[in-house]
Amino acid sequence: MRTRYRITPEGRSSEPSEQELARYRDPKRLVYNYLIARDRFHKKPLYKDPKAFLALLLIILVTLMIAEAAEKERAQQQSHPEEQVQP
Fold it and tell me: Does the pTM of the predicted model rise above 0.85?
């Protein structure tokens, strides 16, 4: 459904008529769309969804890199304690 918006200097236009509102009222369609979206959300496993899998893989790799950098920094501080600046 494509909606065209009109922005005018005069402000908002009149409210939609009852006929226009009735055209968009379809509770059966709304419930159907909700059920379809809810059921499809968990149908495909995360590892089979390429975008979600790559995002998860990227998060894991960044976490590992941060953990390694923190571990190296901790090891460096323990090996050279005299080089640390005391406040």
Answer: no
